[in-house]
Amino acid sequence: MVKKKRVRFIAELARKIRAYRELKSRPSESQRYALDYETMKRPFSGKTLPVLAWQDVRRESRLFSILSGMRMFGVGRLFTRKSWLEDHSEPSYWKITKVKVDYTAENMDHGKAWGILTYKGQPESEVKEVDKVMYHDWRLIPKHMEQQFKDFEPLPDPPVRYVPFPPLLRAMILAQQSKAGGSAAVEEPSLPLQRDVLLSKDYFRQQEQEMKREDGTAV
């Protein structure tokens, strides 16, 4: 007969109390991401920001620094980042759908946000949490430019012209290339899906001669 496990109510209650105290003593995001703009250090962790980020930190804003001064905390508006504008010609932006503000912060400029991401003109269908909200390169897209970002039509993907060889045939081709080339870098073999045929007068003459050989001459 299996012995029934004894439930220790006091130990279970003590475990829940320890977990609750640990959760309450956990530092908030406003404490973790607080920044001393003179020394460029985070007081909580003592880490110094990279030197390349100092210019953006002084000139640009974090996402919640912008949301805290907007009506409904910017729900429904579009936000982009400076790095996206510089690196991509296609529009990349977040459409904010939900905001959870950390009211313990002094200026309510910390928290979490959710939205729909459109990256390089390709919108996603699911709502997810906005990442890198503490980066100092967020920008609000003006309302008169929102339609311009939304109306962008991405270019169709180019057709596939080459496919990899089957594994066994690929191994044979690579072995032959390595023997012929020695220690030189071996190129990855690929199989073209379309064969370019140069049609010339000689090509049609050869075709006529082959047809005559097969059919024979009329008697």
TrEMBL record:
Pfam families: MRP-S34. GO terms for cellular component: mitochondrion. GO terms for molecular function: structural constituent of ribosome. InterPro entries: Ribosomal_mS34. PANTHER family: 28S RIBOSOMAL PROTEIN S34, MITOCHONDRIAL, SMALL RIBOSOMAL SUBUNIT PROTEIN MS34. This is Mitochondrial ribosomal protein S34.
